[in-house]
Write a structure and sequence with these properties.
By secondary structure, the chain is α+β, with helices and mostly antiparallel strands. Helices cover 16% and strands 14% of the residues.
Length: 256
């Protein structure tokens, strides 16, 4: 069950999505039990939603993908709809209880998942915290990333039309575009791809005073600038806009 999942024994739902606990320090869910998907939502997971919901369009990704690659071209609105659909499905098949829900992580919960939750003010806005922690990356400290750190803009993508930036010199991750789930080592909580592959939507407004764009985290496969790859970096996007390099990661809130 979701309530008994551990890092060594993840909870796995009917789509094959796996979830492990992440400790939350500060914020609205301080000390509560939450589970994060060990992967970004995959093409196969999102395709089930598209086939069964029949309410959301999914424009074709403009480069080759397999079923186990991270899904992109997903708006914030689409990701929220996926979470609602999956919650209903999982309650119907007995995987989740009435008080357990799938949802997007908050910006602070995502920070906890990447290991910087205790270094930031949980109550501060995403815009005020973006890029404020220098030399702290999903792989640790120091730039460029070490071999095998994640799916970033390495030399394998040099010249590709979807990767316009100069590649990270001397780095090669083996994938020009998105990569399969779990291709690179997990972090201390058992989570993969908190850096690179695709950006991940979070619940929050990027700037809560303006409330026009939502925050996403983690950078994508075509990013190669040190400041953009910081664990504290935030991106922002219009909630109903789909971009091929933006996807999402699902979490389970237990007892909300």
């Amino acid at each position: 069950t979701a309530a008994s999942a551990t890092k060594g024994k993840p909870f796995e739902n009917s789509l094959g999505m796996r979830f492990v606990p992440v400790p939350i320090i500060g914020g609205a869910s301080d000390g509560q039990r939450v589970l994060f998907s060990v992967w970004e939502t995959r093409v196969a997971d999102y395709d089930e939603f598209i086939k069964n919901s029949r309410q959301v369009e999914w424009p074709k990704i403009p480069y080759p993908q397999r079923k186990d690659h991270a899904a992109g071209n997903v708006s914030w609105d689409d990701a929220v709809a996926f979470c609602a659909w999956l919650t209903e499905l999982s309650r119907q098949n007995g995987e989740l209880g009435e008080k357990e829900v799938y949802r997007l992580p908050t910006d602070h919960e995502w920070s906890c998942a990447v290991g910087i939750g205790a270094m930031e003010n949980a109550e501060a806005s995403p815009v005020s915290k973006s890029r404020k922690l220098e030399n702290v990356f999903p792989w640790g400290t120091g730039y460029p990333p070490p071999v095998g750190a994640g799916n970033y803009n390495g030399e394998e993508a040099d010249g590709d039309r979807f990767v316009p930036l100069e590649p990270i010199s001397g780095y090669n991750d083996g994938f020009v575009h998105t990569s399969p789930a779990g291709s690179y080592p997990a972090n201390q909580f058992g989570l993969h791809d908190l850096g690179g592959n695709v950006w991940e939507w979070c619940q929050d407004w990027f700037n809560p005073d303006q409330k026009d764009k939502r925050v996403f985290r983690g950078a994508a496969f075509n990013w190669a600038v040190d400041k953009a790859l910081l664990s504290s970096n935030r991106g922002l996007g219009i909630p109903d806009k789909r971009v091929y390099l933006v996807g999402f990661r699902v979490m389970i809130a237990v007892g909300e």
